[in-house]
Structures are given as structure tokens and as C-alpha cells.
Amino acid sequence: xxxxxxxxxxxxxxxxxxxxxxxxxxxxxxxxxxxxxxxxxxxxxxxxxxxxxxxxxxxxxxxxxxxxxxxxxxxxxxxxxxxxxxxxxxxxxxxxxxxxxxxxxxxxxxxxxxxxxxxxxxxxxxxxxxxxxxxxxxxxxxxxxxxxxxxx
Length: 152
What we know:
Layout: H1 4-10, E1 17-18, H2 24-34, E2 38-43, E3 46-52, H3 53-61, H4 72-75, E4 82-84, H5 89-99, E5 103-108, E6 111-117, H6 118-127, H7 129-132, H8 136-146
Parallel strand pairs: 1-2, 4-5
Antiparallel strand pairs: 2-3, 5-6
């Protein structure tokens, strides 16, 4: 099965990092230039959060804040689910679903590695559909059905 490490290895390196002290207007311009939906907020080498389009709409526009005076640190998301490099794509999808999250934070022990997006996972599913999900459950269900049991 595909893992978080496989997802990270297949991602194109992007330079979508911003400081927590940056203004939201600068973050929006950067989002536009890198053509992504999120920026990783770093203070030096330390992960602080993620700034995304949803943060802008919910925490700036809908709250009447100004993009020219609001800092990224005031509106970024900091409470995303965490996954390990050995976690499977399937477990990531389940985690995203249960937390209603679009992003996961990938860590190698204490070290931040990457953001995993729903789009990253979907690309893995499409490209590697036979290697993404554990087929043992499906096979058990098929075997059970062939034995005369009913599947609902």
C-alpha cells in the first residue's frame, strides 16, 4: 500500500513558505504566484501553521479584517491532524474525512516534513488504485458472499 512517504516523494518541490509576520495581502499574492491553495507558515525552520484560501475567507473577509494590516499569524490554521511517513494513503483519507480537513501535516518523528493535501491523495488513488487500498477486506467480503452469505 502507498504511504505518506510515497506521496511526499511524488510531490513537486514548491516554495510555498511564508513568515507568520507577513501581511495577508502578501500571502494572497504568493498563493496566486505559486498557484496553490495553501502556504506553509514557517518561523525560520520551525513549522507554525498553514495559511489557505479558507483562512482568508473565514478569518479575514467574513470578520471584516483588512488584508493590508492583518498578519498571517492572526488568521492561519494551527490545529491540523498529524500523520507519520509510514501511514498509508487510506488512513490519511480516513483521517481527513473524520476531521473534515483538507490538509494533513506529515512528520518524521519531531521533524515537520510536508503538508499532505486531499489533491495529493486523490492523485495517488488515481495513479495507483490497485496499491492504495487494502484489498483483504474486499476479498473477505467476496469470499463470504460466495459462501452464500448476504452483503448489505
